[in-house]
Design a protein that fits this description.
44% of the residues are buried. The radius of gyration is 20 Å and the shape is globular. The chain starts with a strand and ends with a helix. The protein has helices spanning 18-26, 46-51, 70-79, 101-112, 147-152, 165-168, 182-191, 219-243, 245-261, 265-278, 282-290, 295-304, 309-312, and strands at 4-11, 33-39, 59-63, 85-92, 96-97, 118-125, 133-135, 144-145, 155-157, 159-164, 194-204. It has 315 residues and is of the alpha/beta class. The longest helix has 25 residues, at 219-243. The strands form 2 sheets. Strands 1, 2, 3, 4, 5, 6, 8, 10 and 11 form a 9-stranded mixed β-sheet that branches. Strands 7-9 form a two-stranded antiparallel sheet.
């Protein structure tokens, strides 16, 4: 019997797209796949679409009474993994998997003799055709992804991955954060390296009004992005500070920016001072000044000047 793989599909108000994502999960060439769909409190026709899958033995639907965000949906999916699941992967309802995605990644796990904590494949932007991640392979170890690669910025962007469930232990995503799944994956890489296969395994949509990457500056979004920066710093900040102090300062500057926009003045000032301490640059100096701007004025400035570099990219 081949190892069980569980795919967690997270969805919120995507009635038009969710069946496409589910069907791509069910249509895998790997024979032992089940699917957990987490409906994160949808208020559109998503529940009606999901009812069409009733009676499909490979699908379980879990519904949040209210919208909690992608990280909470991911945690709910993990909480519902069956005891027989060996590997799991997260998928969003506007993305689709290539038919052999699971088989390709499981094959890499099997060939490694449990050497890897996670195995990744490339993502592709469905509109542009570009890959959604970046990986700089160092000579002599093409395919290997290490914790050092993540810290150094050799490995970043959107990939699709399967994870060795047993290694996850009690690690979970910060539900206050908007994104920052890397705060979990990077911890796994610290324990064991990963492997990046050369194939595209996921097609993703990077447009649409609900994408996490779309810049907005309201307080709730800013607070979620503030917690995302904090989650990453909690996970790897000490190692960044020791090995890549300028990158560490960039993360602190981003934390300060989002904290200021969220109205968390004390947190913003503390982070900006620490960023300047580790990298005395024009940008960290600007962040020191920016966080002193009253929050309503700062938000209006950000909305009216989307190209303001210190607000957009304070690294």
């Amino acid at each position: 019997m081949q190892d069980r793989v569980t795919l967690v599909v997270r969805t919120y108000n995507r009635a038009r797209l969710v069946s496409r994502a589910i069907d791509s999960a069910l249509g895998q060439t790997y024979p032992n796949v089940d699917v957990i769909v987490v409906d994160d409190g949808s208020t559109d026709g998503t529940p009606d679409v999901l009812r069409a899958y009733e009676g499909e033995p490979r699908i379980r639907v879990v519904r949040h009474a209210r919208n909690k965000g992608p990280n909470a949906a991911g945690n709910t999916g993990i909480a519902h993994l069956g005891a027989e699941t060996r590997y799991f992967g997260l998928a969003d309802s506007d993305d689709t998997l290539e038919p052999d995605a699971v088989e390709t990644l499981v094959r890499a796990f099997e060939a490694s003799d449990d050497r890897y904590s996670l195995v990744l494949g490339w993502g592709r932007d469905m509109e542009k055709g570009d890959t959604t991640g970046q990986m700089t392979h160092l000579p002599g170890r093409e395919g290997v992804v290490t914790y050092e690669d993540a810290l150094a910025g050799h490995f970043r962007g959107d990939f699709w991955l399967l994870v060795e469930r047993e290694l996850l232990g009690g690690l979970r995503f910060d539900e206050r954060a908007r994104g920052a799944e890397g705060s979990v994956w990077w911890r796994l890489l610290r324990e064991r390296p990963g492997w990046l296969v050369p194939e595209v395994v996921m097609n993703c949509t990077r447009s649409g009004s609900d994408r996490l990457s779309i810049p907005r500056y309201d307080r709730d979004v800013a607070r979620g992005l503030m917690w995302a920066e904090q989650a990453m710093l909690d996970a790897v900040g000490a190692d960044l500070r020791r090995t890549y102090p300028r990158t560490y300062a960039g993360a602190l500057s981003a934390l300060a920016k989002w904290a200021a926009l969220a109205g968390e003045g004390a947190r913003a000032r503390a982070a900006s001072r620490q960023a300047f301490r580790y990298a005395r640059s024009r940008r960290t100096l600007l962040i020191l000044l920016v966080v002193l701007v009253p929050q309503p004025l700062l938000r209006r400035l950000a909305e009216s000047r989307r190209d303001l570099r210190v607000l957009r990219d304070p690294a």
